[in-house]
Amino acid sequence: MVDYKPIDMPMQVNHKLKIVEGATLADKKRYQRLVEKLIYLSHTQPDIAYGVGIVSQFMYKPQENHMKAVMRIVRYLKGALGSGIIFKRNGYLKVEAYTDANWAGNQNDRRSTAGYFTLVGGNLEKVRSRKL
Fold first, then answer.
1. Is the pTM here over 0.85, yes or no?
2. Is 91 left (phi over 0), alpha (psi -120 to 50) or beta?
3. What are φ and ψ of residue 93, in 5° steps?
4. In this model, does residue 88 exceed pLDDT 80?
C-alpha cells in the first residue's frame, strides 16, 4: 500500500454494500485476516468502527466490492497515523452517553442498526453497535 494515496473517510457515504449474485469472490482468508485486524484496531480507532462493522458482515462469502471497502479503510488509516484514543486525567468523572440508529438501513436483510458510546471524565469508555 506504499503507492496508495491516503483518503479522508473510511467508508463512502451511502455505500450500499450488499451481496450481489454472481459477483467475483475475494480471497476469503486474506479478507478475514484483514477484517479481524481491523476489528482489534477499532478499539483504539473508533472512527473506523462503523466501517469495520459493515465489512465484518461479509466474512463468510466476501466479494471484490467488499474487499475494496476493506482496502479503503486501510487507506484511511494510512492517512490517520498518530490518531486514536488517548486516555488522560481530566479531574472530573462526568458520564456522557450518545446514541444513533439507522432504521431498516441494511440492504441485505432490512434490519436496523443502533449504536452508542459513553464518555467518563472526557475519555471514551465504551463503543457498541448492533443489528436489531
1. no
2. left
3. -125, 40
4. no
